[in-house]
Amino acid sequence: MLESLVKWSRLKSPWILHFNSGSCNGCDIEILAALIPRLDAERFGVLLKGTPRHADVLVCTGPVTRQMKERLRRVYDQMPEPKFVVVVGQCGCSGGVYAGAYGVVGGIDKVIPVDAYIPGCPPRPDAILDGVVKLLAKIEKGGG
Amino acid sequence: MNWLLSIIYLVVFPGILFVLGFAFFAEWLDRKVYARVQRRVGPPFLQPLADFIKLSSKEDVVPEKADNAIFTAAPIISLAAILAAFLYVPVVTATALHVFEGDLIVALYLLTIPTLALFLGGWFSGNLFGQSGAMRVASLLFSYEVPFFLALLAPALMAGTWSMSGIVVYLYGNPLAFVVTIGAFFIAVISLQGKLERLPFDIPDAETEIVGGPMSEYSGRRLALFRLARDAEMVVGAGLIAAVFLGGPWCPFISLDPGYIAWAVGAAFFILKTLIVLGLLILMKSAVARIRVDQMVNVAYKYLIPLALAQMLVVVLVKYMGWF
Ligand code: SF4
């Protein structure tokens, strides 16, 4: 009873934090486009938060550069459990066009555990929302 | 029987449960109207409840640099102070649960405590963003608190009493007296917006400048309590203004018989008037953008305070001429 209530609340209120660990900014603009009034993410309870302490879902873009590796790790550690990570864009999934470059570690999952990948270069805003909804379905099934 | 009624008054209606339920409703209304103004759909009805449960079930984090005792006490104290202030607001009849000469002042000071708690919580969270947000909280305190107090002085002068229930009793006798203090009413609503740190006065937690302000380090159930306290403050502040300016439970057919129908109608009118004040707060939030710290001090000291003083002069004149 209590557990299903908590699960319901988690599904209904995913607060996100947006983090760029070396993206070309293409994906970031698409994330902002997914939050515009026309698509209205707030009807799913999504709020964009400024601090990792408030967030439930870390939305990452871009490959992880060597400089950003520690910082990505720290931001992830600052989020309170339960937390989820969504990767937006080809670069975050695998390193994309930057794979193998001297300053790049690789995809986000080389540094922190990832729950959902949204490929595309960059993915469309509706694809991003669809990815978030798929993550919620995964949480509902039992992950987290 | 009397103690039973008192306990129901304290805990269920119009005590703790009512205020908390109303607070959730007010947050939903706030976000929904805000969304509709921006041509969005807005959050579902149970959104504030979902946020609260989710936050309460999250991991409990206290930063290493934070002072654990103050960090934890701040949200609890602010919620407690707000709930205590509501006991002096007349909701069902013209007399609140506890009445004494001067309860208006006590309620006003109780409503100041959440601001101080927010300041202390932010300051002792050991985060630079939290500390600069806390400094903004403290420096803004002086710009909205003065007009708020001055504005609430007008109806007190009008009724010649420092007790909220006394003012409401006076308004029962002279319902038209609210026309005289209408200017102070709007000043009080604007200062309440500043007190609640909502747009255009949300300078302390401007997320585009200093991430979460004093709440940057707050997470989990402490954050849930802080958010709930802020919503409750919105409801209690609006209810206080509704009582002092608009006569709270007063309505044209107050002399209904038997007593409990009059109570129900009175409470319904109180809620209606509170909703009117809440509506003003929400529309103000939707219509404006954030201003800077110095602009806020300007607004308060150049416009709000002189207007509040002029309002007091009007009240004194009206009293002197014996029109009311
Ligand atoms: S996936 Fe494409 S748009 Fe996104 S960061 Fe990489 S190169 Fe830029």
Notes on the protein architecture:
Chain A has one domain: Rossmann fold (3-Layer(aba) Sandwich). Chain A contains five helices and seven strands, in the order αβαβββαβαββα. Chain A has helices at residues 2-12, 26-34, 66-78, 90-94, 125-141, and strands at 15-20, 47-48, 57-61, 64-65, 84-88, 104-106, 116-118. In chain A, β1 (15-20), α2 and β2 form a beta-alpha-beta unit. In chain A, α2 packs across α5. Chain A is globular. The mean pLDDT of chain A is 86. Chain B has 324 residues and is mainly alpha-helical. Chain B has one domain. Chain B has 13 helices and no strands. Chain B has helices at 2-11, 16-37, 47-56, 68-86, 103-123, 128-159, 164-173, 177-180, 182-195, 207-210, 220-246, 259-287, 293-321. In chain B, α2 (16-37) crosses α11 (220-246). The complex binds iron/sulfur cluster (SF4). The site of iron/sulfur cluster has 13 residues of chain A, from α2 and α4.
Q: Topology, pairings included?
A:
The complex is a heterodimer of chains A (144) and B (324).
Chain A: H1 2-12, E1 15-20, H2 26-34, E2 47-48, E3 57-61, E4 64-65, H3 66-78, E5 84-88, H4 90-94, E6 104-106, E7 116-118, H5 125-141
Parallel strand pairs in A: 1-2, 1-3, 3-5, 5-7
Antiparallel strand pairs in A: 4-6
Chain B: H1 2-11, H2 16-37, H3 47-56, H4 68-86, H5 103-123, H6 128-159, H7 164-173, H8 177-180, H9 182-195, H10 207-210, H11 220-246, H12 259-287, H13 293-321
Helix pairs in contact in B: 2-11, 2-12, 3-11, 4-5, 4-11, 5-6, 6-7, 6-9, 6-13, 7-11, 9-11, 9-12, 9-13, 11-12
